[in-house]
Amino acid sequence: MTSVLRTDYQRSVADYWNNERDPVNLRLGDIDGLYHHHYGLGEYDPSVLEGPAATRDERIIAELHRLETAQADVLLDYLEPVAREDRLLDAGSGRGGTSFMANQRFGSFVDGVSISESQVAFANGQAMERGVSDRVRFHFRNMLDTGLESGSLHGIWTNETTMYVDLFELYQEFARLLRHGGRYVCITGCYNDVTGGRSKAVSRIDEHYTCNIHPRSEYFRALAANGLVPINVVDLTAQTMPYWELRAQSPVATGIEEPFLTAYREGSFHYLLIAADRI
Fold first, then answer.
1. What gap in Å lies between CA 138 and CA 8, rounded to an integer?
2. Less packed terminus of the chain by CB within 10 Å, N or C?
3. Left (φ > 0), alpha (ψ -120 to 50) or beta: where does 134 sit?
4. In a domain, 84, yes or no
5. Are 138 and 113 spatial neighbours (Cβ–Cβ below 8 Å)?
6. What is the predicted pLDDT for the residue at 1?
7. How high is the mean pLDDT of the chain?
8. Domain-located, residue 3
9. pLDDT per position as a tens digit, 49-102
10. What is the tally of structural domains in the chain?
11. How many CA atoms lie within 13 A of 97 on its CB side?
12. What is the band of 2 on the pLDDT scale with cuts at 50, 70, 90?
C-alpha cells in the first residue's frame, strides 16, 4: 500500500480534520456518544424554539442531533439486508457515528477508514468504550487505497465524503472491495449540471470545507465505469432544508448555513442518496 497521504491537497484536508474541534460536531455527539460529520433529514420540532430561554440552546442541539442520526438511519436502510458475519466499510469514517449505528443495527463487522489520524484515534477510543472494538475498527488509510482484501465486503458507504476524492478512482477501489451483488450507498451534496457550473453559493461551500463538490452527472459516469449499477436514487434536498433552517438559528451555527440554503433554494445544489449494486 502506498503512502496514506498522496498529495499536498490530501495533506491539507487531513490537517484540517486533525485540528477540527467544531462545536457543531462535538456538542451534538456529547449527547449520546454518536459523533456525526454529516447533516440532518426531516422536519424539526418547532417547539424547540419556544419555551424557557435558559434551555433553548440545549433543545436545539438535541434536535439537530436527532436529525443527523435520522440521516444515518436512512443511509443504513438502503444497505439492508446485512447479516451478522458480513463486513462493511465506512469510507471517510470521521469520529465513527455511522459505523457504530451500523454495528448496533446489524451486529456486523465494520471497518472505518480516514486520512485524519486524530479522528481514527478518537473513533477507536469510542469503540473501546462501547465494548465493540472486536467488531468495529478504524484505520488511518486512504479510501482510494484501503489495503483491504478484494471481494471481502458486503457493503460500503460514503456519508458526505466523496467531495474530497476523484470519483473514478474511488469507485474502482470500491468495485475491487465489494463481492458480486454487494451494495454501495452514497449520501452527498452535488451541484446541478443543468444550471451550469458551480454557483457562488456552492463555491462558498467548497471554500469553507476545503472540498471539491462534484456535478451530479459525474457520480453516474463513475459508477457505470466501474460496474456499480444504481438501484435507488433519492433526492433528499427538500428533506434536509429544515435541518439547515434550524441550524441557522442555533448556537453552533458556523456561517455556512446561508450558502447551503441559498444553493438548495435556487436549485444549483442537490442532496442525493444513491444505492448501487456491484455486478
1. 23
2. N
3. alpha
4. yes
5. yes
6. 43
7. 95
8. no
9. 998 999 999 999 999 999 999 999 999 999 999 999 999 999 999 999 999 999
10. 1
11. 27
12. low
One-letter amino acid at 84 equals R
Backbone angles phi, psi at 157, to 5 degrees: -135, 155
Residue 2 falls inside a structural domain: no
Residue pLDDT, tens place only, 202-232: 999 999 999 999 999 999 999 999 999 999 9
216, part of any domain: yes
Q: Cα(141)–Cα(112) distance, rounded to whole angstroms?
A: 9
Tell me the three cell numbers of residue 228. Answer: 456499480
Q: Which amino acid is at 36?
A: H
- Name, in order, each residue with C-beta under 8 angstroms of 54's C-beta and a sequence gap of 6 or more: none
Distance CA 83, CA 109 (A): 9
Q: Which three cell numbers stand for residue 151?
A: 471481494
Residue ranges of E strands in the chain: 87-91, 109-114, 136-140, 153-159, 178-191, 228-235, 269-278
**What are the backbone angles phi and psi of residue 247, rounded to the nearest 5°?**
-60, -35
Which residue range is the domain that position 48 belongs to? 8-278
**Confidence (pLDDT) at 72:** 98
Distances (CA, A) of 82 to 43, 103, 176, 212: 28, 10, 19, 32
pTM: 0.95
Contact between 137 and 124 (Cβ < 8 Å) = yes
CA–CA separation, 36 and 98 (whole Å): 7
Contacts of residue 248, defined as CB under 8 A and 6 or more positions apart, other chains included, come to 257, 258, 261
Q: Residue 8 has which C-alpha cell?
A: 499536498
DSSP string, 88-120: EEEET-TTSHHHHHHHHHH--EEEEEES-HHHH
The CATH number assigned to the domain holding 169 equals 3.40.50.150
